[in-house]
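Thanks for the sequence, V.! I ran PAS modulated sigma54 specific transcriptional regulator, Fis family right away. Repeating your input here for the record:
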Amino acid sequence: MEGWPSDFVQIVAALVQNPYMGIVIVDKNGYVTVANDTYIHIVGKTRDEVIGKYIMDVTSNSQLPKILETGEVHIADYWPCNGHDLIVTRFPIYNKEGDLIGAVGKSLFLDLGDAKALAKKVADLEEELAFYRDAIKSVFSPKYCFDVIVGKSSKMARLKSMAEQVAQTGSTVLITGESGTGKELFAHSIHRSSPRAHYPFVRVNCAALPEHLLESELFGYEEGAFTGARKGGKPGKFELANKGTIFLDEIGDMPLPMQAKLLTVLQEREFERVGGTKPVRVDVRIIAATNCNLENLVEQGKFRADLYYRLNVVVLDIPPLRERLEDIPLLVQAILPRLNQRLNTNVTNVSSEAIQLLRKYHWPGNVRELENLLERAINLADLNNEKQLTAKHFPSLQKQNIENILIDKKGETLADAVEQLEKEMIRQVLKQTNYNKAQTAKLLGLHGSVLYRKLKKYNLG
Ligand SMILES: Nc1ncnc2c1ncn2[C@@H]1O[C@H](COP(=O)(O)OP(=O)(O)OP(=O)(O)O)[C@@H](O)[C@H]1O
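Predicted structure:
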């Protein structure tokens, strides 16, 4: 124990007591200065037979003299001792002048049996994880994924099959289309049927956050990066989406400085947290969506051309609902059960006349507007007596229909337009009163005989 103050030796001895790890320290001549009870148990001796003794007399296959001789470090070396199978780490000790003054031996496990138990525990957990990953995968199987996207029109069928194909690659996807056309639905479906399906899908609405928050939201921040920064820092959405997909919604609204940073991530697949210095590497698939015309934004200097070209790898342009009106009956069929479930109602279908009305509308809000209109119609229906939604439950569309008649009749005579309007109004009030002619005449302010004449004229009777 040459050169080691006795107080120091005692402090070290107290620090090294550890029932799971054998620890021994020798001085520069190989004499044991410190050994914990676990080590003494491993070598199968008494404390007196260990402390102060030459290490090779304590255990004849010790490697510590070699460490003293060479200054080597042994990490996780297999060491059989006294019937135990151990994994040990050995390293030299130097004083501040740089002279070698001793060596330490630390067994990682009391016995390899412990290591095996740990390895088994990890293997069991991995098996369990694989089971749940498979379970998740089967719930979101590819078939199920694209099945939620309703549409048999040729435009939608083509788009769905292209998206299915693209899902299998890791390529960046840009989804364009008017608001409410289903861009997010496509992004979700691509992720769920991709090989990344059992990793996260993280959505960021680039339009919803002010510029200074967007940066930390996307890239995270380090502790102390700004006032109010959380202790320990916070990972950003890119880190959270590692191995999965990040969905950058409303990318056209991303501020220009953020676009520059995003471009770097797209090129390098790495970034720095706000206030950080270390680069963070991620493996993330990027799906971006916008209802803006990015080319126009590039021309106006509001969107970086280089970022646009990076994003413009695979483009899925979702057609507006007015260009696929034939999908409306199917969409209605798919949306009604969802609404019934949410509103706790039991509407069975929509009359064919109402479907005709829906097919005449121009749908500026696309499928989202269709959902809203159906929800409003359910709220207008007398659900004790009616299980079917009819034209009268879509008053805004009826009004629109009358306006359309006037628009359609532009260029025709006033008498023609008035006749069309008269016919449409009578037809609607008749439906509203369940074909009660007396009531219809009253509501329209007509004498019964006048109504009968008009019914005959317009072939409504
Ligand atoms: N083809 C479709 N089949 C079934 N539901 C659809 C379809 N397209 C859209 N929807 C539904 O319409 C609503 C709007 O869709 P989504 O949010 O994906 O549109 P979006 O294009 O991302 O809209 P925004 O640009 O406003 O964010 C959602 O409830 C979605 O489930």
